[in-house]
Design brief:
With 738 residues, this protein is mainly alpha-helical. The protein is 53% helix and 5% strand. Bound molecules: 2-acetamido-2-deoxy-beta-D-glucopyranose (5 copies).
Length: 738
């Protein structure tokens, strides 16, 4: 996470204290008034307290009307109903609430007993994810018959999407548009005209016009050390098909065979003579597998990511002479103006040197094959924009390789989803602005901001009360939370779409989808280069507004809640507040805790008195069986478990605070849940996902534990659901962490 603990704390702390000096008479008068006010409030609250107690005794033990209980339990128990729920609640009977109700009924299995398995109660039938739902929303936007200015960026995005969806036209065009591109690159020996090879020219065109980098990657990104100016970076390539050494023992020959038959298929689709295709395909694979041997393995790559070298283009030319670096980089990064003395960042110099040797050898022995190799690579890279024959061949290869490398099969994705993703890649800022306009009104933004303030205040108040936290940690955590910046929903430019207006006048839509695709690709590359030289480039807000994950950026100490997260079923200004606090609210707490939760772990917080509590937490989590019958606990997830516990506890506190100041709450019709029960249900909803989708590197506990761990540790849960003592969600021991 890389949070910088020394981020100028302390200096700002003193600014937040009231000024020490000032008029003493004025101050003592205020103090006297405050004392008087306090006494009055105290008196009134004692009075109110006794009234509430009386009403509570009267209400809570009145006979309840037996309702068809969705909880699978007799509901005629004498429930503990706290003061806030003594007051009648109105059902929220708006379309927004009815859709939420439908969603709850569809994703949860309410015939499961909530005190035994609340995860199944809330998520038992959950299918799909919020991210998929958001893609469907983008699809609706792109398929709606809106009215837009002719020539506007919106019109281009719509046309791009419909051209992608027009599979009849794509099929009719066949391999024609692709053959034309191959001609422009100088042709190849397999089909069509064959002019003599100029290796450097083809490579330059591939990099600059087609965004394809067959032998290495080159991209613009901030310098690894301050002041992080944008700089050209050169790194090893990423090959889709694993042909590295580590696979040589197992299924390696079979993977090679599948890959070979894929390339054969591509060559034949492009009209090549089968025996010639076979020969070139074979050599192409041999080049890829030679280069694969020089790649650093992914893990090593990551740990050594900090190891980089600054070299001039001239030095690079000496070390890896097969490539005309200056002309290739200049063509790719125009309008930057490069000279031989230009410094670039090189991430794996050994690879570049070895790669250059392989190319030189090939250039001597098999010049023509190198051209075919580069074209095969381009055809692979362009296959999303080609007709169904190319796509089917690719899908078949991916499926076979996943089988051979023992990975679960990829679900097939509908065409619209591919097209939404391609339109997103091509027109991100436009699509972002349209999405925000459609789903995130200013009133939603201010409601979300209000929720965030309530959550943040509750957290700050709560930090003062944690008995186990030492003063220094408390102050650090307090400072971090009070000083954090927040972006709610979308960056400024997406909320003011006019700013993104002129981005696409160099994207030209053509009759052929492939040509439009390539035009948008060039336009995107130019945009990235342009924007990296602006003082506050758009891409600093790296999160798309439709993403469904909150982010924390340590460098500008900012939390970001994208509009995609502040959507039904997690948030809506007209929802019962219980839902917004339980779902969006707990997500907000989690993100705020992320800023400092590492401070609470053993090893960081030496003076904290929480060792016993963390041990308690281990036992607490270990007590829950997982769906596959094992129990799960690891130190790996401790930090996230601590945060999950806090997410629930603080969101609940904030909700209770809100209820005590603003009475009256709505509930969902037909669902016989009290506001607090609804709060817990919406909290659990955030965690709903199919357990099989858990990534083995995920630092979180599995979804069912993320629901049961915190809820069973919360006495209020057991109270509001009247869980019998000793049921899994009302255990005999709890850990006093938050
Ligand atoms: C819902 O839960 C009940 C009781 O555990 C179970 O029998 C039923 O199969 C579940 N329904 C679904 C759709 O999972
Ligand atoms: C080969 O080149 C000639 C002349 O440049 C051109 O007319 C012809 O269409 C090309 N053939 C193919 C298959 O592209
Ligand atoms: C590509 O350009 C570099 C640098 O000018 C040169 O050393 C190399 O031989 C060229 N490659 C070919 C195949 O012409
Ligand atoms: C795009 O529009 C801007 C402003 O209207 C203009 O300055 C720029 O030259 C245009 N670019 C192209 C490629 O037409
Ligand atoms: C059970 O599930 C957990 C988490 O999903 C996983 O880590 C563990 O390996 C599984 N155990 C078995 C025996 O499948």
């Amino acid at each position: 996470m890389g949070t910088n603990p020394a981020m100028g704390m302390g200096a700002l702390w003193s600014q937040e204290r009231p000024p020490e000096e000032g008029q003493p008479t004025e101050r003592s008068r205020w103090q006297a008034m405050a004392r008087q006010l306090l006494t009055t409030v105290l008196f009134l609250s004692v009075l109110l307290g006794s009234c509430v107690l009386f009403v509570y005794i009267f209400w809570s033990c009145r006979p309840r009307v037996p309702l068809p209980s969705p909880l699978g339990e007799p509901s005629s128990l004498c429930l503990f109903v706290p003061s806030s729920e003594l007051f009648p609640t109105d059902p929220c009977d708006t379309p927004v609430c009815r859709r939420l109700l439908e969603h709850y009924l569809k994703s949860g299995n309410i015939s499961v007993a909530p005190c035994t398995d609340f995860f199944s109660f809330a998520c038992g039938k959950a299918k799909g994810t919020l991210a998929e739902e958001i893609k469907r929303q983008l699809q609706r936007i792109l398929e709606s018959s809106g009215s837009w200015h002719p020539g506007s960026e919106e019109e281009k995005a719509f046309q791009f999407y419909s051209s992608c969806m027009d599979t009849d036209a794509i099929e009719a065009a066949g391999a024609g548009p692709l053959r034309q591109i191959i001609e422009e690159l100088g042709g190849w020996q397999i089909s069509g005209n064959w002019t003599s090879l100029d290796f450097n020219r083809t490579l330059r065109l591939l990099m600059s016009q087609y965004g394809h980098f067959p032998f290495f990657r080159a991209y613009l990104s901030p310098h690894p050390s301050p002041p992080h100016q944008p700089v050209i970076q050169i790194d090893q390539p990423e090959f889709d098909i694993p042909l590295g050494q580590e696979l040589e023992q197992k299924n390696y020959a079979q993977i090679l065979r599948e890959y070979l038959s894929y390339l054969n298929c591509l060559g034949e689709l492009l009209g090549g003579n089968p025996s010639k295709v076979q020969e070139h395909a074979y050599l192409s694979i041999s080049i890829t597998s030679q280069l694969s041997r020089f790649l650093r393995p992914p893990g090593q790559q990551r740990t050594q990511g900090k190891l980089f070298q600054m070299v001039t283009i001239e030095q690079l030319q000496e070390m890896a002479p097969a490539i005309d670096w200056l002309s290739c980089l200049q063509a790719t990064f125009t309008p930057m103006s490069l000279s031989p003395s230009q410094l670039v960042v090189v991430h794996n110099l050994d690879y570049l040197q070895d790669m250059s040797k392989v190319l030189e050898k090939q250039l001597l022995e098999h010049r023509d094959f190198l051209q075919s190799h580069m074209i095969f690579g381009l055809v692979e890279a362009l296959s999303p924009a080609l007709n169904s024959k190319f796509q089917d061949a690719r899908r078949l290869l991916n499926q076979k390789v996943r089988e051979l490398t023992e990975q679960p099969p990829m679900p097939t994705r509908p065409r619209w989803m591919e097209c939404v993703e391609q339109t997103d890649a091509a027109f991100k800022p436009t699509l972002a602005a349209m999405f925000v306009r459609e789903t995130f009104s200013p009133s939603t933004q201010s409601a979300a901001m209000e929720l965030f303030t309530a959550i943040k205040d509750a957290l700050i108040t709560h930090l003062r009360r944690l008995p186990w936290m030492d003063e220094e940690t408390r102050k650090k955590a307090h400072d971090k939370v009070t000083q954090v910046q927040v972006t709610m929903g979308a960056p400024e430019w997406a909320l003011k779409p006019a700013l993104a207006r002129q981005e696409y006048n160099d994207t030209h839509l053509r009759p052929s989808y492939l040509q439009s695709f390539l035009s948008s690709l060039r336009s995107r590359q130019a945009r990235i280069i342009q924007s990296s030289f602006q003082p506050s480039p758009h891409h600093r807000w790296k999160v798309s507004p439709w993403e469904v994950k909150a982010h924390y950026s340590p460098s500008d100490h900012m939390v970001v809640f994208p509009a995609g997260l502040l959507q039904p079923p997690f948030f809506h200004p007209d929802y019962p507040r219980a839902v917004n606090f339980g779902a969006a609210g707990s997500i907000m707490v989690l993100e705020l805790l992320r800023i400092f939760s590492h401070l609470l772990l053993p090893g960081f917080c030496l003076a904290c008195d929480n060792r016993a509590i963390l041990q308690c937490l281990e036992h607490h989590y270990a007590a829950f069986p997982l769906p596959n019958g094992t129990s799960f606990y690891g130190f790996r997830t401790l930090q996230e478990d601590v945060a999950d516990m806090g997410g629930l506890a603080i969101a609940l506190k904030a909700y209770n605070n809100r209820l005590s100041w603003h009475r009256g709450e709505t509930t969902l019709p037909r669902l016989d849940l009290s506001p607090h029960q609804l709060f817990f249900l919406s909290y659990a909803q955030v965690m709903c996902r199919e357990p099989s989708t858990q990534d083995s590197q995920d630092p979180h506990s599995p979804p069912s534990l993320r629901v049961h761990g915190p809820l069973s540790n919360t006495p209020a849960f057991a109270r509001y659901f009247s869980c019998p003592y000793g049921t899994p969600l009302n255990p005999s021991r709890r850990c006093q962490l938050w």
